[in-house]
Amino acid sequence: MIQKSIIEMKLITKIFPGVTALDQVSLKAVGGEIIGLVGVNGAGKSTLMNILGGVYKANKGKILINAEEVVFNSPLDATLCGISFIHQELNYFASQSVAENIFMSDLPMHKKFPFILSQADLYKSAENILSLLGSNIDPRVPIEELSVGEKQVIEIARALAKGNNIVIFDEPSSSLSITEKNKLFETVIKLKQEGKIIIYISHFIEEILHLCDRYYVLRNGKMVGEGNVKEVSKNQIITLVIGKEILVKSKNYKYDEKQKFIKIKNFSQGNKLKNINFEINRGEILGIWGLMGSGRTELLRCLLGLDKKDSGEIIIAENKNLNSITPIELRQKCGFVTESRRIDGLFLNESVKKNITSANLKLYAEGIFKIINTNSELGDAESFINKLSIKTPSSLTKIENLSGGNQQKAIFAKWLNKKPQILILDEPTRGVDVGAKQEIASLIMNLANEGISVLLVSSELEEIVNMSDRVLVLRDGTICHEASGSEISEEILMATALGGN
Amino acid sequence: MLKKNYKNIFFSNSLTIPIIICLISAITFSITVPNFSDLRNILNIFEQMGVLGFLAIGMTFVMISGGIDLSSYTAVSAAAVVGATIMVATESALLGSSVMLLVGLFFGTINGIAIAYLKMIPFIVTLSTMVLAQGFAIWFTKAQSVYGLPDSLIDLITDRLFGYMPMPAILIFIVAIISGFILRYTKMGRELYLTGSNEHTAEISNINIKSSKFSVYLVSGLMAGITAIVLSGIVETSTTSMVRDERLMDVIAATVIGGASLKGGSGSIIGTLFGLLFLTMLGNAFNLLGVSPFIAMVIKGFVLVAVIGLDVLRTK
Predict the structure, then answer these.
(1) pLDDT tens-digit readout, B117-176
(2) What's phi and psi for B168, nearest 5 deg?
(3) ipTM over 0.85
């Protein structure tokens, strides 16, 4: 019988200069159960976990492990007490084998010659640990050859190898595909069966509901809710997380043949895209859904001329004429929210203002020297900051310092400043918290109501289902299904994407 | 609001460091180094600064775009010898000077095409053109200096306005104001910062990153041409090594001290000039103290490493 371990955080208060990050927060976890910790960015999740991890010291409150008080002066202290973190970003030695990565701090030595490593033992123990996690990864391959999900398994195996009892998952699933997610869940459940204490932090409330036994909700540094997962609904948790009732906007889009705006004809590229045809009307949100590798990203890149297409035509209705335009011209006419804002969405070391005005500088360039009118620039930026309620100390703050959700809103502002007739959105709410997600979703719907055509690409099925007026399902580079009205449901989309009917 | 802006312009992070460094070294040198604060020496410092100033301004443009130009200092020699040869043959300072500018622009064009349009790596491209320009200058003159430049050029460059201000210092002042204006206030300048800050975002935001990147090498080439004219006038000859090798590092260091990042997206003309002022004062103080030039090089080397460290800290 495995002895159940218990960890308790009692009335933890943490004050940073000017802010109370945590206000008398308590949390208790018992071995063999999975605790879900939910909250928007800035709610205090990371501060709480950093206290548990020995990064910060609490001003008040104590931590008890198996009813004994512990004091962590450094992250090392926490590790020695059996606490492991599984982060979103993984740390590993890329060219080294899986087994070496698992045992890097404690490599097994040869029994007779203790100054050399025992390869046989190394691989055998690695296999044991991996099989404990239900994984059949070969411990001999270099870790860089593994997928993101597999690497995460290695990270968990590492925690097990150290004999750690408390495993904290910090947003572990955000970069995983669906199959990998399911694998991760299986692994987490295995850990639970081993009697480990598991704290699972996630933005995805469905995951919490699916995986966890109990939940804790943090908001503004206070624990605002806790309980058994079985006794709560998704909307109840969301309400706790954002602190107000959620508004689900009704879609009032009416299909109208006369409103055809843009037509994509015969787009093909190698074997990635095969003869794609579709239309978008004014004010319509067209969702594009497909699994990883179905051609979602390739389609967008080809449409906008970032990759070369083999064939294809874009026709746009302008002033009652139908004009054929090039992908580059389309890029000039549209707004394009890319999937990875830090890579190609933001100018990180520039101010919020300069980011917002960057896509339409010609609006502010005056005279033959094209001098930028900074006053009207500032005015426009500030009106967008108000309109989209972008939370920033000032319009001159570096955009790097904003939260993910506010950065994303600033990117929307950048494109809206161009007054585009079409918006192309690739994963528009990736990596933003629940509250900002709602705001961005209602922003997109309002824009569509104002007559902007929206092409929405997302890997989050729920987002596609809630927002789209019509959905195209991509599979192997072809459109395998078009769904509209009541046909837009998670079940149907998933089934068609996987190859069903 | 106005107060805040004022604060922003003068005490933004990138300018604080060069100004403080300059103030501290100016005060220290005035106290410890004899003759440092004499008017004659101060004018001397400005004159020396003027010579590298043009190259440093060119380098600022290039570094804001995220690139580097190692070739501008040898392009000076190539431009100078070709222009001087024509000056001597035609006795026209104007024609010869124009040729110097054109040769500078020519090297800028090569760099610009290779980097902006053929997407080659700035460091490698300009390292190649650096060797190319040096080789060309030596081949063109058979390693001889060109003497007998027209007096009109020499008189103009060595003239002192109001009997005090050296002409190169005045020229640099004009060029600095125009460049600073372009960078700070125009669409071209803004696009340059944005391109250097994040090329991918800039491209998606419909900024013409190719022409942005191309233009900075043209500016750098043009600055090499101007330097060729000024230097030829000052030393009254044109040689195949108008700017010494270690001066290249001075130019880069001045730009980095002035707030430019080797990663692009930051930097300013005024910062660069302060950076250059600091390095010139340092060299000048060593000179007055009679420090061996080799020891001076060692110390300067340390300063440069510290400067690069500064860049790392700042961009963290």
Answers:
(1) 999 999 999 999 999 999 999 999 998 899 988 888 888 888 877 777 788 888 899 999
(2) -60, -35
(3) no
Interchain CB contact of B8 with A (< 8 Å): yes
Q: Is B204 on the interface with A (CB under 8 A)?
A: yes
CATH class as words, domain A6-242: alpha beta
* pLDDT mean for each 10 residues of chain A (501 residues): 74 82 89 87 81 87 88 85 78 83 78 78 86 82 82 82 84 72 84 88 82 89 88 82 59 62 87 88 89 81 87 86 88 89 90 94 90 93 92 90 89 93 90 82 89 88 86 87 82 72 50
Number of domains in chain B: 1
Partner-chain contact B198 A346, CB within 8 Å: yes
Residues in CB range of B48: below 8 A, 6 or more apart: B280, B283, B284
Hey, how many other C-beta atoms are within 10 angstroms of the C-beta on A464? 23
Tokens of A371: 């001098």
Closest residue by Cα to residue A446 from A415, A461, A467: A467
Q: How many CB atoms lie within 10 A of CB A3?
A: 8
Distance of CA A423 to the CA centre of its chain: 21
C-alpha separations of A2 from A196, A346, B2 in Å: 10, 50, 68
* A359:B206 CB<8 A: yes
What is the C-alpha to C-alpha distance for residues A369 and A313, in angstroms, rounded to an integer? Answer: 37
Q: Residues with Cβ < 8 Å from A170, sequence gap 6 or more?
A: A46, A49, A85, A86, A87, A88, A201
Handedness of CA A438, A442, A445, A447 (dihedral sign): negative
Domain with CATH 3.40.50.300 in chain A: 6-242, 260-498
Structure tokens that stand for B65 in this block = 């775009």
CATH of A260-498 among 3.90.20.10, 3.40.50.300, 2.60.40.10, 3.40.630.30: 3.40.50.300
Q: How far is CA B279 from CA B22, B45, B226, in A?
A: 9, 10, 21
DSSP conformation letters of A239-260: HHHHSS----PPP-----GGGE
Contact between chains at B187 and A372 (C-beta distance less than 8 A): yes
Instruction: Specify the pairing of strand B165-166 against strand B160-161.
Output: antiparallel
Amino acid at position B95, single letter: L
Measured in angstroms, the CA of A324 and the nearest CA of chain B are apart by 20
